[in-house]
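Hi all, long-time lurker, first post. I run a small reading group and we've been trying to get comfortable going from sequence to structure in the token notation. Rather than ask abstract questions, I figured I'd post a concrete chain and ask someone more experienced to write out its structure so we can walk through it together at our next meeting. Sequence below, copied exactly:
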Amino acid sequence: MFMDHILTWTTFLPLIGAALIAFLVPGTKHRLIRVLATVFVVADFALALLIWRGFSPDYAGMQFVKRAPWIPAIGVEYHVGIDGVSLLLILLTTLLGILAVTCSYTAITERVKEYYVMLLFLQTSMLGVFIALDLFLFYVFWEVMLVPMYFLIGVWGSDNKLYSAIKFFLYTLFGSVFLLVGILALYFVNTTGIPMFGIEGLGNAPSLNILHLQGIAAQIPATLQFWVFFGMFLGFAIKVPMFPFHTWLPDAHTDAPTAGSVILAAVLLKMGTYGFFRVGMPVLPLGFEAWKELLIALCLIAIIYGALVCLVQRDMKRLVAFSSVSHMGYVMLGIFVLNEVGMKGGLLQMINHGITTGALFMLVGIIYERRHTRLIRDYGGLAQVMPVYAAIFLVMALASMGLPGLNGFIGEFLVIIGAYQENFWWAFTAAVGVILAAAYLLWLYQRVFFGPLENEKNKSLRDCSAREAWQFAPLIVLSLWIGLYPKPFLNYLEKPVEQLILHMEEARAFGEGEERLVQAGPPAPPEPAVVAEEISLEPESLPR
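-- Answer (accepted) --
Happy to help. Here is the structure in token form:
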């Protein structure tokens, strides 16, 4: 009974913890609040490990599926299930949930109760997106996520926190409106159609089941797919964020508290890439094909643009934020090239980015707590007084730039190989981005940790405590594991990638067949058969 509902338990356990802290624990009991928040996120990660243990990577369909009527009048269900991509994202989310809670122990001293309530609430909303198999349920979790993230930035952020919080909320809400319009269009084309636009419905029962919509994808008119995909693209691209919809990201990252930046970079951005993989591409394959070239162009621009902007940053946190724009360009490029090597690389790089960038934001948060400045010019020579901190920073920076033997190399290498199979210049541009990433990360490290220790305020800085150092242990282990032996992780991606590629090829073949029929027009009527009997005109053959 418990295992049948384990996805539901894993998703809503943090929300139960948030409700318990909100209604039963006094706001002055800071230590108890931190302990309870830690217990719930650790328990949530334990449930994720149970899911991982019971998951079979060789099975092609969804696993741990649970369905129950929710709003029968419009065909909406509580329908959940996962595949290998969802599983890895659930494990990443629950692991980073522990780190987000523990890294806030000393950073958050005001409104502690409300802070941890919002953090737990945010974890439930993100997990819900990764398990939803009904588009209405998917959209509910997608939108609910905005509320806790808005408060985390606006209440516990720094400097221009209100501006950054409002900008984040308005940008993502703008994209969500177009996403909702796309969902409604799919609902009506599946049932009654949209008479005012001359679109006939398919006459099916009301349903927003994602798997059902994938099954009827070939029946949705190509013109409608073109516009619906554009609407969904806006919703997902702003969340990624893809160039040129990225301008909310540096502000939100810079002004968010450390845990908010970690969750925002490591998990929240993945909701956009997951939306493309789970909904946009399989439900609207012809729409994706129509926009593919533009999407890949935007990915390549993001890779180069994000890296170049990093080279001129003076704020460490802002530099790491812009690096996310560049690295997420690799993720989307790998997914959009639509071949097995590239897609596996893109999806694996999605996990890699969560590990390395989450760690880098935590590292910037540690030094900010001590010095209350993130400006690169205020540092120099920190390796002399903070050797443990410098060593951890070096490992995660090398992983982020793609050093062989660490996780970033595997993902970027597969993405570049996949891009090369489609177009040489795509691969060449992506490779230039790797060089630029090494430039801005090594330059950052040199300016902060090497050179003379001239600033008097830095000479008394204490190194990482045991708690701070141990927070990075699982991230370093994962970086080495994926870098040296990525096969177990790629195994979980194999079946979902194969299924999506096969689905897209079938839809493309069907669409090309329909286009040929339209161009050829209706078949010509057959020639009437003329049967004539040969009559000889010779005299002896004439009838008497």
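A couple of things your group might point at:
The longest strand covers residues 63-71.
The longest helix spans residues 487-520.
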